[in-house]
Amino acid sequence: MNSSSILDQIGNTPLVEAKVLINKPYVKLLFKMEGNNPGGSVKDRPAYNMIKSALERGEITENTKIIEATSGNTGIALAMIASLFHLDLELVMPENSTKERVQTMRAYGAKVTLTSADVGIEGSRDYAEAKVRDEGYVMLNQFGNDDNWKAHYKTTGPEIWRDTDGKITHFVSSMGTTGTIMGTSTFLKEKNHQIEIVGVQPTDESKIPGIRKWPQEYLPKIFNPKKVDQVIEVSEAEARNMAKELAKKEGIFAGMSSGGAVAAALKLIKTMDKGVVVVIICDRGDRYLSSDLFD
């Protein structure tokens, strides 16, 4: 009998070709379906790599009190993986995070602390950093931890290269912690430096969960702007509408940051005559059902 751990199911997510959203015979748009990870998002990859690597280095043990600020998907992934390693985990997130996220983290056994919505994820980060400074907690720090981007260097990049037979010409990813784009860019550029790496950010005043335009003092330490060839901005309305279009037209049920990434990919494709574009679909839409995204 062949059996495996749930952790063995992280990664090797499928690439699915867009059939309706584009109509250019020499351009392929491929969706990297990260919602197929067991925790439901792309964040399973860095969460596993951060915890596993910290355990291997002896930086955390079952007696360590771990704390992490999250806008959702990383927290769910950390909660799932921490439970398997019997780790004590507290997750901090803004109080306006969707109910499904909070409930899922608690279902995996994590303690969840909600901070004021007025100060957003920055406020959650400040709270977690105070606990580290004053109470001896340990933070994995997805925003500054090289094990975040290295997860994508080891897995996401190689999978995309393999599954496109090395034919990828453009890679499009929303930018939050920036781990996905940093690690995937590093790998793909080693294979072919002409592959165009496209980051997605919200327009000013737009709020898109999972995509950020960080103030300088909160810019993720793992971010290296040299690894991104161009940035395409999308509005909240564009991200929302595309999330709905993805479900209706391509049968892909995903969140707003995935909608934003696909909206950016379609802007890019308007400028192209040929190529293979891979875009990250970072999670599943059922994580947003208590929000107004699909109303």
The total of beta strands comes to 10
In DSSP terms (H or I, runs of 4 or more residues), the helix count works out at 8
Strand-residue proportion: 15-25%
**Spans of 5+ residues with little confidence (pLDDT < 50)?**
none
Q: Quote the average pLDDT.
A: 95
Tell me the helix content.
Answer: 25-40%
Radius of gyration: 18 Å
EC number: 2.5.1.47
Organism: Galbibacter pacificus
GO molecular function: cysteine synthase activity
Catalytic activity: O-acetyl-L-serine + hydrogen sulfide = L-cysteine + acetate
What does this 3D model show about the protein?
Helix 2 links the parallel strand 3 (65-69) and strand 4 (88-94). The model has no long low-confidence stretch (mean pLDDT 95). The protein has a six-stranded mixed β-sheet, sandwiched between helices. A four-stranded parallel β-sheet has the order 5-4-3-6, with helices on both faces. The protein has 295 residues and is of the alpha/beta class. The longest helix has 18 residues, at 146-163. It contains eight helices and ten strands. The chain is globular and about 60 Å long.
